Amino acid sequence: MTTPHKIAIFNNTPYINGIDICLSELLSYQQQAKRALKLKNNVSKQMRVGNYLSKIKGRGMEFAEVRHYQAGDDIRNIDWAVTARTGKAHTKLFQEEKERSVFILLDLSDSMIFGSQFVFKSVQACHLSALLSWQAKQRGDRIGGLIFNQEYASELKPTGRHLGLMRFLHQSEILCQKDAFKTHSTKQSLFIQLKRLTRLVQTGSQVHLISDFSQLDDACIKLISQIKRHNQVDAWHISDPLEAQLPANLSHKKIQINSLYGSTFFDKKNSRKNYKKQALQRHEKIVNTLMQHGIAYYSLCASLPLMEQFHAHPNQR
After folding, report:
1. Fewest C-beta in 10 Å: which of 37, 86, 100, 282?
2. Nearest-CA neighbor of 195 among 151, 148, 236?
3. What is the dihedral of CA 53, 197, 128, 286, to 10 degrees?
4. Taking a C-beta distance cutoff of 8 angstroms, is the pair 208, 236 a contact?
5. What is the pLDDT of residue 188?
6. CA proximity to 141, closest of 199, 54, 23
């Protein structure tokens, strides 16, 4: 017999303990998704586009038929298989989909299993993905994506109605359980998942990337840019205050910081300033890199309940 979870309620949203996820937490966002939401404070406010989560433009395109290539046709739509078989150039024709595909890349890897004040970054990421999933369902869109922790990954092809939503929420719950954290595996990475996403995503889709982007490098950016050529891509950066600066009331002269990359020591007198400076540089590099490639950037913190970081308005539909 399992012990019932103790659930704390913030803005009508339950949090069980800030470490694990239970399905009731994710289901609670059904009501929140009915409102238009705008981020309150964002460091990249002047660079962001698409402030309202509920307003997403455009629809995807699905294959309709193949015909002979004509002058003016987009060469990217040439059907090379038919062209090779017939000896004459053929191009693919597409028609607008009635439902759009929404893909969510949810990062629950090692660096996300951290939180200093309220919840783990991984928990906040699951809450955000639930909100985005419910909003997609509200619009009648299909929901799919990739969810991964350090050891496992779950690939979900876009599915409509209630099925796509529930599959995504269930997999989020499974891969965010603390038992999944007991590993030092490096089987999964942001690069590997982005590579998979390039094969999974459909032209004209909405793509949400939810991560702390600690693994973001040139190879990842190349893949994200490739995805953005034919899709709308939003990056959701999940952070924790301790990543930005060390607390002022340190009890020891030196603090040992351990990570996957080794150990180091911070001197209480001199290192707080350097730590903050280096953290700011890392953050600015992530923001600038994403924005330079035309990726809409949003910043959320794990130290506050998710809905407290949004202005909410009645949904105009």
Report:
1. 86
2. 148
3. -80
4. yes
5. 73
6. 54
E strands, the chain, are 8-10, 13-15, 36-39, 61-68, 90-96, 101-108, 142-149, 153-159, 206-211, 232-239, 254-259, 262-267, 296-301, 310-313
| pLDDT (0 to 100) of residue 242 | 83
Mean pLDDT of 60-69: 72
Contact 38, 52 (CB under 8 A): yes
Task: Say if residues 105 and 171 touch (Cβ distance below 8 Å).
Answer: no
Residue linked to tokens 């973001």: 216
Would you list the domain boundaries of the chain?
12-51+99-313, 62-95
Which superfamily does CATH assign the domain made up of 12-51+99-313 to?
Answer: von Willebrand factor, type A domain (3.40.50.410)
For 129, phi then psi, to 5°, come to -65, -35
Q: Which of 140, 235, 161, 238 is nearest to 197 (CA)?
A: 235
CA 79, chain centre distance (Å): 32
Distance, CA of 160 to CA of 137 (rounded, Å): 8
What does the pLDDT read at residue 97? 54
- 197: tokens are 């996403």
